[in-house]
Amino acid sequence: MSGGSNRILKGFLEERWKGIRPVLWGTSLKEEELIESIYKGLFNLTAEEPGRPVGGEA
Q1: Which of 32, 36, 16 lies closest to 24 in space, CA to CA?
Q2: Is the pLDDT of residue 26 over 80?
Q3: In this predicted model, what pLDDT tens digit does every residue of 38-50 receive, in sequence order?
Q4: Nearest CA-CA partner of 17 in 42, 39, 2, 50
Q5: Distance between CA atoms of 19 and 49, rounded to whole angstroms?
Q6: Fewer beta carbons under 10 A from the terminal one: N or C of the chain?
Q7: Is residue 45 within 8 Å of 5, Cβ to Cβ?
Q8: Would you tell me how many other CB atoms lie within 10 Å of the CB of residue 56?
Q9: Which pTM was predicted?
């Protein structure tokens, strides 16, 4: 996957997470955190971009 594709996928996952996180708790929250970790691990999305704060917030 090219760097641009990884950025697009990472952005999509971050936006999805922001939209569903406020309504999750308990088992549902744990499941979503696991799914997010799997995606980030599979596509090597854990490395932060230089100059960007941890957590992806600007």
Answers
A1: 32
A2: yes
A3: 988 888 876 555 4
A4: 39
A5: 22
A6: C
A7: no
A8: 15
A9: 0.58
CA gap 36, 18 in Å, rounded: 12
Give the CA count within 13 Å in the CB-facing half-sphere of 11.
7
- Residue with the larger pLDDT of the pair 50 and 26: 26
* Whole-number Å distance between alpha carbons of 45 and 28: 22
46 CB-near residues (< 8 Å, 6+ apart): 40
The alpha carbon torsion through 14, 19, 30, 28 (nearest 10 deg) reads: -150
Band the pLDDT of 58: cuts 50, 70, 90: very low
